[in-house]
């Protein structure tokens, strides 16, 4: 397994652990992600990442375990018996395999700076899962410590994209981290979160 696949697998496993740990009475709790509750954050991550997987596999996006299909950036509708953990596990496993699949490497992916091959996109692929893992933890009162190696790696990949990131449909304004902030706090402030 490549470093990129291993990194995404670790970050995905951390997200899954947070999903499975959501208390029954916290699914409707607010999160730091504006206007989204815990359930919506999880559904969003599933929806966005399965669209990436469908693009690199050149397949149609499909409903998974009661998580219906939605456009990018739109929260998908959920069936009453939706299994968010199972849906995420299938998407995450598929992406881990795709990262190391030569057939996916040159597939053009839309990015903030225009189309790039999937092989280039995988370097920052964990960003959405990292940010929303933190949102999920904050919304449920869980462990909000992120995978430090992944945070450092993704943060370095995002820094050159600072101007391109400041789009209403992407990332909000960056915040000034407090003096002496650790790298996770700096990263979260960079992507517009207030730790």
What number is the mean pLDDT?
94
Strand count, sense and closure of the main sheet? 2 strands, antiparallel
Low-confidence stretches: none
SSE order:
HHHHEEHHHHH
CATH topology: Four Helix Bundle (Hemerythrin (Met), subunit A)
Globally, the shape reads: globular
CATH class category: Mainly Alpha
Strands of the largest sheet, in order across it?
1-2
User: Into how many domains do the coordinates divide?
Assistant: 1
Distance from N terminus to C terminus (CA atoms, Å) equals 33 Å
Number of strands: 2
The total of helices stands at: 9
Structural key phrases:
single chain; 195 residues; mainly alpha; Four Helix Bundle (Hemerythrin (Met), subunit A); two-stranded antiparallel ribbon; globular
Summarize the structure in words:
This protein has 195 residues and is mostly helical. The chain has a single domain (3-190), classed as Up-down Bundle (Four Helix Bundle (Hemerythrin (Met), subunit A)). The protein is built from nine helices and two strands. The protein has helices at 3-20, 38-57, 84-99, 102-105, 118-121, 127-140, 148-158, 162-165, 183-190; strands at 108-109, 116-117. A hairpin with a 6-residue loop joins strand 1 and strand 2 (116-117). Helix 2 runs parallel beside helix 3, helix 2 (38-57) runs antiparallel to helix 6 (127-140) and helix 7 (148-158) packs across helix 9. The radius of gyration is 16 Å and the shape is globular.
Summarize, please.
By secondary structure, the chain is mainly alpha-helical. It contains 9 helices and 2 strands; from the N terminus they run H-H-H-H-E-E-H-H-H-H-H.
